[in-house]
Amino acid sequence: MEIKVAVAKVGKWATSESGDTLEMIERPHGGISFVLVDGQRSGRSAKAISNLVARKAISLLAEGVRDGAAARAAHDYLFTHKGGKVSATLNILSADLVSNTLVLSRNSHCPTIVLTPGGELVSLDEPSQPVGLRRGTKPQITELPLVSGTVVVIYTDGLETAGARSSRALDIPAAVRELTSRDDTSAQQLADSLLRQALALDDGRPHDDVSVLVLRVLDREGDGVRRMTVQLPI
Amino acid sequence: MEIKVAVAKVGKWATSESGDTLEMIERPHGGISFVLVDGQRSGRSAKAISNLVARKAISLLAEGVRDGAAARAAHDYLFTHKGGKVSATLNILSADLVSNTLVLSRNSHCPTIVLTPGGELVSLDEPSQPVGLRRGTKPQITELPLVSGTVVVIYTDGLETAGARSSRALDIPAAVRELTSRDDTSAQQLADSLLRQALALDDGRPHDDVSVLVLRVLDREGDGVRRMTVQLPI
Asked: Which residues of chain B have pLDDT under 50?
């Protein structure tokens, strides 16, 4: 099998930097974890917050700490550091090669979209608190078997609030359904297309930071090579 | 401008995991850093070492620690932890958006290949110690202006020792020169092609872990979107 992950990420229009932070880390027992954080507000202050939360989660995951504990610790850290006055959303997506599962940890009002190998589209949307505000905040955790055909889509709220100024909005589950109706849509095409649709609703001037992460599990035998590419506008 | 980075990475034939670790982290003051570590020996023990060194470097870079200090700390940590008995090579490549430079930190016998915007091929090969063995080990640091046309190639020693059993060897500078003679060779094509040439010399059964990282600075105006893709065979 092969896991393909794609991330597309853009900052709010006319701000110097995105308040969203996406980091990736290898799991010491095998596998890989992605951490996506959206800091309160936008610009530099949001970036500082999301960087702090992501850093805490990543450093713990790198030491082999389990996802639920890393999410709790990231919350406790922000809560302690900022006295409960600053919030952030936090998603952790792990491909855990010990348990052979995908572990989805969610502290966000945004749902996580899952397409099962059977073609069912599931929206993981149990009530969930952001980190940083309330003592004892816990993540919503979902564990899925690591089987080919699975697609997971995680995003920050800029994706679902795109177009809000003009009362148009992106129906994300419908967009995912349509984009995955063809078997050969890559993770990158899916992430890019969702971002492009959101940007179009905001007339190319995003009113908030937008980040989209797509993970696909494929059953093809690859060449055994791990690959990563990064594109960074400066 | 735009920075494109590609990594291609494969483990030694018939081992369960690569002893090389590659991690990436966003720099809190702006920019991005890549850390590539090759742990002594191969397989699980090498992986534990490279993971430990990479984790230390990444966690410090994430806190805004400068590259040279992060490399020194990673050395001190391994040296203390393993009593000077275990070594690893360590490369840090940073695109620093505060100083507008590429910072290349090297604790490895493998040179770093740089193609300048003027078309000059430079091999950064000053004598350099791996981390972990000798008290006070320092990195070789090179700082280059962040200008379009620059290409940087970093690799672990599996790339240059490929084919050693059959006394064939890859002339890496010559291969980079040839591959970059066409303007449109992407970072990914360059990384993939170098890895493929090494694998061919080992008849498809790499005798060591091989990792290649290529960074290109391009002057084109992109769409302002940050992108990342990951391909992970499991």
From this structure: none
List, for residues A93-141, the tens digit of each pLDDT value.
999 999 999 999 999 999 999 999 999 999 999 999 999 999 999 999 9
Per-residue tokens: B233: 């065979």
**Per residue in B10-23, is it b (16+ CB within 10 Å) or e — as a string?**
bbbbebebbbbbbb
CA B182 – CA A140 distance, rounded (Å): 50
What residues in A contact B223, CB-CB < 8 Å? 233
Inspect the interface and report whether the beta carbons of B231 and A225 lie closer than 8 Å. yes
Q: Do A21 and B26 touch (CB under 8 A)?
A: yes
Evaluate if residue A7 carries a pLDDT over 90.
Answer: yes
Does B102 touch chain A if contact means CB atoms closer than 8 Å?
Answer: no
Q: Which of A2, A6, A21 sits opposite B232 (nearest CB)?
A: A2
Distance CA A31, CA A63 (A): 13
CB-based contacts of B136: which residues, under 8 Å, 6+ apart?
A: none
B130: CB partners within 8 A, 6+ apart: B87, B88, B89, B90, B107, B108, B109, B137
| pLDDT, chain B, mean | 95
SS3 category, A58 = helix
Question: SS3 for A129?
Answer: coil
- Spatial separation of the C-alpha atoms in residues A88 and A105, rounded to whole Å: 14
Task: Please give the backbone phi and psi of residue B100, each rounded to the nearest 5 degrees, phi first.
Answer: 55, 50
Residue B142 CA to residue B124 CA, distance in Å, equals 8
pTM of the model: 0.96
B197 reaches A (C-beta below 8 A): no
Tell me the pLDDT band of A57, cut-offs 50, 70 and 90. Answer: very high
Q: Does A46 touch chain B (CB under 8 A)?
A: no
From A39's Cα to the closest Cα of chain B, the distance in A is: 14
Question: The tokens of A36 are what?
Answer: 């996506």
Which one of B187, B223, B233 has the shortest CB-CB distance to A226?
A: B233
CB contact under 8 A, A229 and B55: no
**Is this complex's ipTM strictly greater than 0.85?**
yes
Q: Do A227 and B4 touch (CB under 8 A)?
A: no
Residue with token string 């999410």: A71
